[in-house]
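Section 5.1 Outputs to date
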Amino acid sequence: MQERQPNPDTTTTTRTTRPTQAGETPLSATEARQGRRGTPVFMVLAIGLVLAMVAWGAAEWWGQATEPPSEQTATPPAGDTTPVNPNAQPSSNP
């Protein structure tokens, strides 16, 4: 099987370390990290949570506004609905 050769037109060289200038000391791992903790991270988290709660509230409100009634109402039967004998006792078997 042949070894795969890199294409010289598409290879790029990236520098992994920055050259140090005279008198400059290398940074420690803690100092060299890109992001920092604190207020910016907290603000992104807080704003994201507030926006999620607003979206949830809007979905709840819209869902309740478009919800069908909880009790289905039936239309009364057509015709006379008065009982034949209004003084009769209700039967125990429906």
